Amino acid sequence: MIREAMFYEKHEDYLRCHLCPHSCKIKEGKSGKCLVRTNNKGILRTINYGKVTAAGLDPIEKKPLYNFHPGKNILSVGTFGCNFTCDFCQNYTIAHYERDGRFISPEDLALSCINADNNIGIAFTYNEPTIWYEYIYDTAKYLKKNYPDFKIVLVTNGFIKEGPLKELLPYIDAMNIDLKAFNNKYYKEICGGSLDPVLNTIKMASSKCHVEITSLLVNGLNDSKEEVSKIASFIGEIDKDIPLHLSRYFPRYKMDRPATNIDIMRDRQKTAKKYLNKVYLGNV
Ligand code: SF4
Q1: How many helices (H) and strands (E) does the chain have?
Q2: SS3 content of the chain, % helix, strand, coil (to 5)
Q3: Which of 8, 30, 192, 251 could form a disulfide with 44 if both were Cys (CB 3.0 to 4.6 A apart)?
C-alpha cells in the first residue's frame, strides 16, 4: 500500500517535503534523502507504508528504556529508509536500501501487540521511525482508540520538524532520542543532519512523554569530557531525572576507528553524573 504523505507542499515542477528539517525538494519520479518519499505525478507518496522488514518481542530495556515499565516486553517493528547517513550505522541494510517488507495494516499490528506475551505495546525502532510517520500516526491513533492501555514508543534520531512532531506527540508514551554529539559539525559531517532540531525535539518531547537519551561515544570524535559535559548539562537543564545512556562505539559500516576505550566510558559516566541522576553505560 502506498499512502500520500501528510506534510508537503506542491510547486509547479517539484514538491517540498516538510516532515524533517532536510525539507527536500523532490522532482517528478525522484525521492527525498530518506528514499521513502517519492514524487509520483505531483503527489508525495510514502513507499514504506506498513512494510515491516524487522519485528521482534524485545525486553523494553533493550530499546534502551530503563525507567519505563521495566521487566516488560515490547513488540518492536521497523521498516527501511533513514534521513541520516551516519558513518557508523548499525542497521545500514535496512536504513539505506529499499527492502521488501511484509505489509501489516495498523489494525493487524495492534492485534499482534495485544496477543504478545508480557507486552506493553509497540516500539517503532530498528530504522529511523519518523520517516515512517504516516504508518506510526495511523497505528498509534488506532491503538489508543481501541486499546488505550497499550503504549507507543519511538526510538529515534529526533530529526523531525516541529509541526509533525506536535501532531504525533499526543499518541506517544515514551521515546529514546539519540543525542549523537553536542556540535553541529559532527552532526553535519558524520550523520548528515544538524543539531538544533534534535535539541528542539528533546525539549518538546520531554514535556509530553517519558524520554531517555542515548549518546554513542565514538573514539576520538565525541568522547571528550567537554563534549559529554555539554550533552549532560543540556539534558540536566531540562530535567535532572532524564536518563542518559552512554553507549560504547564499535567499528561498523563506513567507520573503522577502534572501539571506544572502556576506562574513558567509565570516566565519562562520572562526568555526566555531575549533571544527571541516572547515567548508564551501554555496549560495555
Ligand atoms: S522526510 Fe525524507 S523526503 Fe522528507 S524532508 Fe526528510 S529526508 Fe526529505
Answers
A1: 8, 16
A2: 30, 25, 45
A3: 8
**Counting atoms of ligand 1 from 1, which one is nearest the CA of 83?**
7
Considering only CA atoms, which residue is closest to atom 4 of ligand 1? 17
Domain boundaries, given as residue ranges, for the chain: 3-46, 51-282
Q: Give me the residues paired with residue 151 across strands.
A: 121
| Per-residue model confidence (pLDDT) at position 34 | 94
Give residue-wise pLDDT tens across range 5-16: 999 999 999 999
pTM: 0.96
Residues in the chain, pLDDT under 70: none
Residue list, ligand 1 pocket, CB within 6 Å: 17, 19-20, 22-24, 32-34, 37, 83, 131
Second-level CATH architecture of 51-282: Alpha-Beta Barrel (3.20)
Residue nearest to atom 2 of ligand 1 (CA): 34
Interatomic CA distance for residues 248 and 261, integer angstroms: 8
- Compute the distance from residue 115 Cα to the ligand 1 centre, in Å: 34
Query: Measuring from atom 3 of ligand 1, which residue has the nearest CA?
Result: 32
Residue 272 CA to ligand 1 center (angstroms) comes to 33
